[in-house]
Amino acid sequence: MTATPRCPLEAVSAAALLPHAEARLQRYLADLAHLVAIDSGSYSPEGVDRVLDWTADRLAGLGFTIERINVPAQQGRRVGDVLVARKHGRADPSDGGRRVLLLAHADTVFEDGTAAARPFTLRGTTAHGPGVSDDKGGLLAGITAVEILDTAGADEYAELIFLVTPDEEIGSPASRPAVEQVARGVDHALALECARENGDLVIARKGVADFLVTVTGRAAHAGIEPERGANAALAAAHLVVALQGLNGHWPGVTVNVGVVRAGNRTNIVCPEAELRVEVRSSTAEGIHQAAQAIHAAAAWPTVPGTTVDVHQLDLCPPMEDTPAARAMLAHARDIGAEIGLELDAVATGGVGDANLVAGLGVPVLDGLGPVGGADHTPDEWLDVASVPTRTAVLAALIARLGRAAD
């Protein structure tokens, strides 16, 4: 059997791909202005779907097959679709071909009307506008990188999957099953959130677990017979102190009691209280240790007659700093060095869809969009001068990972 000829390695180096990226910059800016002009908040499904329509058309033109997944409403509010685009390459898995996932999201944190009130602007090399960095700039960088590879004829991968979610900014409650289904079995995942303000990539993200802690006491008249009561508010207060005291017990783990509710009248011994607790950790083990400590504290309430129930509401796994992720970072650094770009990576406490993919055991590298910052604020910005170099590195990294044998 005759082997399929491969695209020469030098043809998919960052240096070779950079002129293609530079030639596409003006189109990138025009497309970015178009996407930023679409209000696509997480609960603006029509706007999200417009972004997905546009993305699907571009990817279909590059030979991707398109699937749209309608996801359930969340708390009675509909979100947009999930977009899954697939393109098979020439490399068989038995011959070193790999399945590479590109991960982006179409939603923003902004309400309808923001795009008109604060439209896309470009001053010098800095672009502003809602979602310009998070994540429309990154989404568009992924599309541009795929276009560059198509131009170069670099399709030595088993499969390239482009996944765009509609609800990342609210924790992906509707799209999570689809994300996990698509990501199972892929070899590498590249998340297209924009790079940190100093240009760093993201090697790790903390995981998050949310807990509802309910304290049940016993009501009594606060003036006549308070001794017959069991004050849930007092027990909850002691619990707040105990849970906040867990901070510093384990490296990379934080515990925050963010919500406290108790009672409704001053003349009644408080019969019930509620705490909302968040645990963040850089490792799954850290979340497990903190959860055990919360349950241990709840098992011995300080106020006689009170009981405590702990219910875990949600768990977003950490994107851990693993040897496999470090190997991907090493590839990115090598590629960046070809064009004089020094790349480093950091850990962050924020979560994203990359966490869900990493939770399946898939190696993930994040922050592969252009350089941007001030996300979720009116000052959100994107450094358009970084677009060609970052897009060339992304394209070359896709090509290298797509045919890596390790």
TrEMBL record:
Cofactor(s) the protein needs: Zn(2+)
Single GO MF annotation: hydrolase activity
Residues annotated as the enzyme's active site: 107, 168 (proton acceptor)
InterPro entries: ArgE/DapE_CS, Bact_exopeptidase_dim_dom, Pept_M20_glutamate_carboxypep, Peptidase_M20, Peptidase_M20_dimer, Peptidase_M20A
Entries under SUPFAM superfamilies matching the protein: Bacterial exopeptidase dimerisation domain, Zn-dependent exopeptidases
Domain Peptidase M20 dimerisation as annotated: residue spans: 203-300
Superkingdom of this protein's organism: Bacteria
Keyword line: Hydrolase, Metal-binding, Zinc
Listed name of the protein: M20 family metallopeptidase
Organism: Yinghuangia soli
Upper classification of the organism: Bacteria, Bacillati, Actinomycetota, Actinomycetes, Kitasatosporales
